[in-house]
Amino acid sequence: MEPRDDRSAESGAVARPDRGRDRDAEGKARNARPRDGLGRPLPYGAPGVPRAPEGVVRTAGASVDEAQELLRAGRPFHAHEVFEDAWKSGPAEQRALWRGLAQTAVGLTHAARGNTTGGARLLRRGADEVERWAASAAPPAPGELDTGGVVAWARALADRVDAEGQVMDAAAQAPELRARH
């Protein structure tokens, strides 16, 4: 069967309506629909924002740089993908840190989408994970991450999300991943 012309250049996914699911070149399920800045799927053919490529191995510093840029641009879902790559490809002793950072980015995504309960819960879960990692690791954190600042940001934002129960502007609420000197 021939794939449709709707392709996601960033993910390599091809829409295959005959099979019911989009697949990449290796046959793995991968959604080919374009996404908005908060990672929500858009209709096939709609203009979306460029997706962060998946499965990229970056240095810790490059991961922090790319995630910070995406967070400042109001694209926390895409920043989560960068953190997830670091979690999956980085040293085993850093996985909990990157997983916690991914959870905070997803928490911000949910808060910006209007899921305030889930957003606050994920922000706190991510903060707890980052804090546990920082307590067990020798400084400095990889990529010059300010783990204490990220934990404080995530908990404060979770409290605001709970108290206000309103959709958050992701770009306006983006954390600073490194301490400013």
What is the strand and helix layout of this fold?
Layout: E1 7-8, E2 13-14, H1 60-72, H2 76-89, H3 95-113, H4 116-136, H5 147-164
Antiparallel strand pairs: 1-2
Describe the protein's architecture and organization.
By secondary structure, this protein is mainly alpha-helical. The chain contains 5 helices and 2 strands; from the N terminus they run E-E-H-H-H-H-H. It has helices at residues 60-72, 76-89, 95-113, 116-136, 147-164; strands at residues 7-8, 13-14. A two-stranded antiparallel sheet has the order 1-2. Strand 1 and strand 2 (13-14) form a beta hairpin. Helix 2 runs antiparallel to helix 3 (95-113) and helix 4 runs antiparallel to helix 5 (147-164). Residues 1-11 have low confidence and may be disordered.
